[in-house]
Each structure stands twice: as C-alpha cells, then as structure tokens.
C-alpha cells in the first residue's frame, strides 16, 4: 500500500524519492518542496531588490533647518559650523537623488563640497560628526588621520578609510559610494617644517599627496579587510565621486599665523593695531593662505572648498553642555544612578566649580567628564551602601573636599 503512494505534483512514486509528506487530500515529495522553495525565494528576492531601489529613488530630503534642529539636540552653540554642515549634508542628499535617477537628463553635474572644520580640542568637531551619523540613513564612518602613512611604510594606507566606509555599508559598494567620511585630526598630517632629517615625510606630506585622489573623486581599489595592499590580494573598486568628506582638526598654533598676518606692525612710534592684539577668536579670519603656511599643501586645501571654524567654549556654553543636550553628562549620571533606584541632585554651585576647573585644564567639553568622574566614582564604587529610593545630594562642600584631595 505504501509503495503505491506518489507525489500529487510530479507523479514520482514512493520508491523514487527520499521522503514524502502527506497532507489532507494529497502528498508532496522532497524534490517538489525544494523546487517550490527556490521559486518563492527568487520571487521575494526580486521584490525586495525592487523595493530597495524604489526607496533610494524616493528618499526624503531633510532640509537644512531640519538637520540643524537635530544637531541642536546634541551640540550646544557652534551655529555657524552647524549651518555649514547642514547645507553640505542637504546638498549631498540631493546628489544621491540625482545619481539614483539616471534616466533623467542631467545637463548640469553637481559637484560635492568637502568641508574642513577647525577648532580647539573639545569644541565639538567629532561630536558633530557622530551626531550626523545618528541622523543619516546612508553609510557613515569616522577615520583617524594620525594612523595613516605613505604607502610602503608602517601604518595604514589611505585606502583603509574607504575600507571602514565599506564595512559600515555591509560591503554594499553602491551604498558606500554615496556615504560620508569624517577624517579626524587632519592637522596631524601637515608638512613637517624645518625638519633636518633626510628621511621622507611619510606621515605628513606623503599622506596628503595620497589623499588627493580619494578626495577628488576617482576609482580606488580597496582591500576588503583593510591593512596593507599586496599584489595577490583581491580588491574592491569604489568610486569616490559621490562620497562627501568632512575633515576636522585643532590646528594648534594657527592662531599665531593668523595674528601675524592680521597685525602687520608698521615702523614708527604709533601702533594703531596693537589694541586688537588681544582678540581671541582669530579662527573666524582663517584663509587658505594660513592653512598653507601651517603645512597643508595647496592641492589638499583646494579639495576642501568649505572651511569653517568652531568657537572656543566659555562658561555659559560649558554649563549648557553639562545639562541641556539630549546626552548631557549630568543626564547620563542621573540615568546611571536611577538604574540602581537612586536619585541624585547636583547643585548649581557644583556645576560652576566643575566649569571653573575645566577652563583651567583647557580641555574643552572633554574636561567636564574628567571632573565629573572624580566626583561620582566613590559613590558608584560604594553603590550598595547607599539607601535605595533616596535622594543623593552633591553640594559645594563635598566637591571642594574631593578636589582638594586630588
């Protein structure tokens, strides 16, 4: 009886197949199951691919004011820099739309506008980049220029920047070619001045020269796993024409270059420009000439047509950074204690002391966390000794005692 059973789809008998699944009114064999699965899988894959293409074509462009409003949640002040970045990202979205709609007659080619951010440490350059990455639904990566060296020397090739972008896009080349790269510490690859050594400037001018082809827009062969390239390695070609590059750096000492250019002292007894010598925010007057004198080659400067600066942080801005942003430090510590069912209350006097100490240290917003850790580390270490469901008051006397013990 069992040998007479057969598949109702293909007609194979029981002895011709591996197994037979019985239903209410029929049977199906393993061959038909595999074939059915293959047909369904191909159909859903085609529909998914079509849906992804349609989503790319119908991507909603976020207006500059929307982008800036999002950045305001994470970054305090720096309105000029946020405005510049918002416009650049907005235009980058539009470039993606144009590149997706290839059937349109594009008589005018929109060029990308790479951005150079200049500001003291702790002013928010990297935070701006990280905040942008939270907003965007396109591949984004942060690369450190200090690890880059000229090809053939110990360190990383400049192509490793694109490897990270490719990894953030899950190795989807077409998606990575529309991404954004933030190159941090770009000032660390400046040309070494008055270098008496006869060796090559492998981590300075050599890296700048290597970056040119990537920034401009060309086909770059990228090693899939990063590291050094070798002849037998399989490469992935990436077109960098539609990749937006944002670079940031402190450019320590460039204020002196700007100051010397602005305050050209005249020979004589009366110096009319002397009263402006104490002006602090020289970065707003920065030009390509200053960057060239600092040590960037003209070709690299030319590939960053948009240059903007971030202002130094004063007491008011530092206090806002402590309490206002979405991920403000005080909010983070309150959340950490709240997980242990402990409420904390930090007085305004304590905030003022933290800000004063941070300004003395000169580390910008990063210094705030240093002093906050000094205040809260003992409480966190003895967390089980603190009564639950109570308010932990952090006042001026406690903080002064802790800082005196440093």
Q: Find the count of extended strands (DSSP E, 2+ residues).
A: 11
Distance between the termini: 90 Å
Query: What's the average pLDDT?
Result: 81
- Helical segment tally? 15
Strand numbers in spatial order across the main sheet: 4-5-8-3-9
Helix content: 40-55%
Low-confidence runs: 269-279
Structural class, by secondary structure, is alpha/beta
Rg to the nearest angstrom? 30 Å
Question: Major β-sheet, in short?
Answer: 5 strands, parallel
- The CATH class name of the largest domain reads Alpha Beta
Oligomer kind: single chain
- Overall number of domains: 3
H/E series: EEHHHEHEHHEHEEEHHHEHHEHHEH
CATH superfamily name of the largest domain? Answer: P-loop containing nucleotide triphosphate hydrolases
> Which architecture name of the largest domain does CATH use?
3-Layer(aba) Sandwich
Describe the protein in words.
This protein is of the alpha/beta class and 406 residues long. The chain folds into three domains: 2-56, no CATH class; 59-309, Rossmann fold; 315-404, Helicase, Ruva Protein, domain 3 (Orthogonal Bundle), CATH 1.10.8.60. 43% of the residues lie in helices and 11% in strands. It has helices at 30-57, 64-72, 79-100, 125-135, 159-168, 173-176, 205-216, 254-262, 288-294, 298-302, 315-323, 329-338, 348-361, 366-381, 396-404; strands at residues 20-22, 27-29, 115-118, 140-144, 180-184, 219-222, 236-239, 244-249, 306-309, 343-346, 391-394. The strands form four sheets. Strands 4-5-8-3-9 form a five-stranded parallel beta sheet, with helices on both faces. Strands 1-2 form a two-stranded antiparallel sheet. Strands 6-7 form a two-stranded antiparallel ribbon. Strand 1 and strand 2 form a beta hairpin. Helix 2 packs across helix 3 (79-100). The longest helix has 28 residues, at 30-57. Mean pLDDT is 81; it is low at 269-279.
